[in-house]
Amino acid sequence: MVERVCGIPKAKFEEVAQLYCGNSGPDKTGAITYALNLTQHTNGVENIRALCMLQLLLGNVGRPGGGVVALRGHANVQGATDLELLYHELPGYMAQPLRDAHPDLATYLEKETPKGGFWTNKPKFFVSLLKAFYGDAATKDNEFGYQWLPKRASADAYSHQHMFVDMYNGVIKGFLADGQNPAVGGPNAKLARAAMQRLDWLVVKDIFITETAEIWKAPGVDPKSVKTEIFFLPAAPAAEKDGSLTNTMRLIQWHEKAVTPPGDVTSDAEFFCSLAQRLQKLYAGSKKERDKGFLAADFKYGDNPKEPDMELVLKEVNGFATEEIQGKDGKVVYKKGQPLNTFAHMTDDGKTAGGCWIYTGVIVEGPDGKLVNRANARKPADDKDYLGHGWAFAWPANRRILYNRASADLQGKPWSEKKKLIWWDPQAPGNEPDKKGKWVGLDVPDFNAFLDPAAKNGDKPFIMRTDLVGGFFGPLNDGPFPEHYEPIESPVKNLLSKRQNNPVAKIWKVPDQQNELASVGSADYPYVITTYRLTEHHLSGVMSRYLPMLAELFESHFAEISHELAGEIGLQNGDMVTVSTPRGKIHVKAMVTNRLKPFTIDGKKVHQIGVPWHWGFKGIDGLPGSKGDITNDLSATVGDPNVYIQETKAFLCNVKKGVV
User: Fold this and answer.
1) Span between the terminal Cα atoms of the chain, in Å
2) d(CA 424, CA 321)
3) Confidence of residue 72 (pLDDT cuts 50, 70, 90)
4) Which domain holds residue 627?
5) Which of 1, 115, 298, 488 minimizes the number of CB atoms within 10 Å of its CB?
6) CB 269 within 8 A of CB 310
7) Residue 228: which of 246, 242, 215, 241 has the closest Cα?
């Protein structure tokens, strides 16, 4: 059945399965890496859950060399997720409140705090976050400013795709694009450009003048028809500012400014802090309840009125004491303003503030009272510490492998000498003078360090879950267990289910035929298309198409096509082709390659092409290869029902020779 559905020969599938499973066990582990090839589907979340389930079954979670590893698209995707540039969560993976479901703080905490596992500490993390937002104005009497938080009207709203549909329909009037180029990089980019052309105003802050900044210059557009007033603000790249990057292994690494930004170029931090302070002056006389939180927020970090001190920003993210905190013995544990050493010291009474609880410990106070930025630590790994705990800081608690209690058996002994990580030492000093026993080893235990394996829950590693054990069922919108569905556009019927595709996938209805879809097995669009990235380019091309040394590495935009398909439609390598979908078409050169082969799916030959998506109508004059048609004009506005990510790794197209 796998061969019939996926087109992979049975023998090859069995070979891969035996190879992988054979490298999992007491002495061996296997890691699964993935990128957007698995996530950008209308069942993308279920795809990743399936990988996690496989790793649980094989014993590849919480052990060295195991895990499910996301290969991120740029250096700070993980950091942006941790600090929640996503619409549905607050920093530290706490839900953004819903207006109707969470009318007050008590209700929010009651509904969102599990009855078991480490998330029972959520009230401490959440109240500390509110204190970081609103400072002294956040008190117990006003729910620590909870009512000042923006509330979601619906869970089915506010994603990237929601925004551009609302923009096209006139609901959104203005847009700030900071380091984003949706005119090229987002799904159904043709719709995105049309939507931005209907705005009252658009502010773009970026390192180059992007396609988004010049939507009125897009091919085929009459500038007089674009009503949008556009403001472009030059932005500083990483080398022109201090800050941190958090990579896929949760490693927070500091980078220091190499040069001062030229002219009117500013960092994101300077721009947003300056903007906030100017807005606070405009709102200073407001008596409205909704404005109190914004007016209470402190956007000043350090003495420089222009550029915020980013280590002070990191301190706020880390967490600090808002007043003197004493221990049970009356001794001072923290002075007011002192950074917290661990999130275990956060409280729900307003005595601590913290912008992202999982980052606590990244910046601490040294014996001399000065801040120690552990993200800037640079001690390389060695044979005594191969995980490199002295290099930067991995959240949480500088722990390098999550759920590492699973690296030992039920009795607390390593599964093998080769794969040992942490283990229970019954003779190690305990947490009280008359007690012995502690988890020790090569990593920071992701577990109560003094909980005996024989004690209650001492054999349960998955501390973030209510039941403390690995889970095969999840509370997802498309069901608790992964199921195979075909993409919204597919050349074949679903052989495993009467349901062709995900029954709760999000398909937006957009006026003016801006999101038309191909039918199953469409004769007009018979080929599968997948989009992908190139080593030489970066995302929508803003950081690569403007650099000659990178842009000239590709002579032109192209579509990768198999020899078999090229033979069927009479193509030679380098010929111009037209790739079309119900949403749009692009003209690119054909790259005829052995990398792609046709599938045989349930006896039917199915061709697939691949098209990178880095090109746009901006670039370097005199270097034609830096400009090209926009691949995402082909993709649709459809999404996974859990996070609304687009489906750009499998949809339907047609390919014709020449410029049609």
Assistant:
1) 39
2) 33
3) confident
4) 506-657
5) 115
6) yes
7) 215
